[in-house]
Amino acid sequence: MITRRDKVLLSVSAATLLGILLPLAALGWFLWQESVVAEEKRLAELSQRLGEQTEAALVDARELLDSLNQLDLEPCSPEHLERLQDAAIARPHVRAIGYWRAAERQCGAGFVQGEALTPPRASRIYDTGVVAWWPSADTAVGGVELFLMRFGQHDVAIDPRLLISPGLLDKQRVGLWVEGLPMSRYPADADLPSPDTTPIGLSVDRAQGRIVSRFSLDTIFPVDIIAAQPLAAFWDRYLSTLIVAGIFGLLLVTLWLLLVLHYLRRHLSLASELREAIANERLSVEYQPIVDLADGRCRGAEALARWHREGDETIRPDVFVPLAEDTGQATDLTLAILRAILRDLGDNLRAHPEQAINLNITGHDLASDRFGDALRKALREAGVAPSAIKLELTERSLLNEDAIRARLRELRRRGHHIAIDDFGTGYSSLSYLERFELDTLKIDKTFADAIAHEAVTSNVIGHIIEMARSLNLQIVAEGIESAHQVEWLRAQGVEGGQGYHFSRPLSAEAFLDWCRQH
């Protein structure tokens, strides 16, 4: 069976693990996204420059052919060849310019002259009259495959290798396609995917261990640039960012671990101190009087546990009571409070059997016979009647009906009165309460506060009182703070009450003095 303590430890362990994994995962995701965005932007800028550079070279070649066709010079004359030579030298990517008559190249200038560059079949023939040959074995001269464009009587041969500036690249392998046909790549043996199999933008090719980027430019000519680089180069580029982010992530994880350790140290330290305080009877009890609303006389009190650590630090009950439950000390705590009551008020309870002290118990106390056996032994040794100790439990303690009901029946048989505390804040209904043998119903402070107000709860308290009467239960209202509330409750037939209107919680000695005066 998994105890609440086990659940707390499991929860803390899970929170610790999540506190480590979630920040690291978030940091890793953020780092990856930022790196991808930065790399995509960098490669897009590189590709755009290469695309615009290629487009500019093709547009310039087209305009050059226009101007050469308009020359009024004798074809292949020295003057004509000189003009062709000047145009070729002025453009670093141009290898040759030639003159054609019909299907034959008559002459040319540059690195390729005469009929040396006459490929048999064009790659593209455009409606404008432009004829183009993409780099291939048919356009190769000196082992270099050239791009050839002809318009009218002239042609321009471009070395496509020079359309890619190696100085712009940083460990990238780059390929250039124009109108879907390969134009150039760097280095010449680069293994690159084609544009029709590569999505626009940045993608990771894990099979090849590389990052691939495709950029398309479609203004005058459809130009595609494919850039690829090893994943290692990608991470090297962002190594400094990785280091900074990793340090930041470690700081977050360290901070979270310190917080968890602090919590566990305090939790375990408090748990150990509580165990020691229980064992050494260092817990104290304050008593809040319960009065008879009909005559204002003291009918007893509710025992409220107090824990003062060394150094006068006070630990609130809403801290140490759940701690006792989580660490399996709930019944030990209840029995320690019982012993304190008997030490403080044993003589008074023996002398005044009409008074009773309400002891708060929980479902943990009723989960076994241990509490009932210890209660009977403590009362017998103190010579105090069972009726002097009234047992209060909350609505949530009634969850395990069969086991709880059997033990409550046994406690009532011995002479203990049973009260249900903070009624109205849980889930109980008339049919539910009928299954338990109870003596007193305590109305929660929330409903007393609503008396004479237009709040929804101001109507509910009347129904609660009627419910208690139908079950023949005594009624005690908690949290009474005004005479008006006392008058209203008395008029409704409520028997008892407690709250600051009568008294704040008192020490044992102050409580006895208060009772002597009331």
Automatic annotation (TrEMBL):
The chain crosses the membrane at residues 12-32, 241-264. It is a multi-pass membrane protein. It is an enzyme of class 3 (hydrolase). InterPro entries: CSS-motif_dom (IPR024744), Cyclic-di-GMP_PDE-like (IPR050706), EAL_dom (IPR001633), EAL_sf (IPR035919). Keywords: c-di-GMP, Cell membrane, Hydrolase, Membrane, Transmembrane, Transmembrane helix. Its EC number is 3.1.4.52. GO terms for cellular component: plasma membrane. Gene3D superfamilies: EAL domain. CDD domains: EAL. GO terms for molecular function: cyclic-guanylate-specific phosphodiesterase activity. Its main location: membrane. Residues 267-518 form the EAL domain. It catalyses: 3',3'-c-di-GMP + H2O = 5'-phosphoguanylyl(3'->5')guanosine + H(+). It is found in: Cell membrane. This is cyclic-guanylate-specific phosphodiesterase. It comes from Thioalkalivibrio versutus.
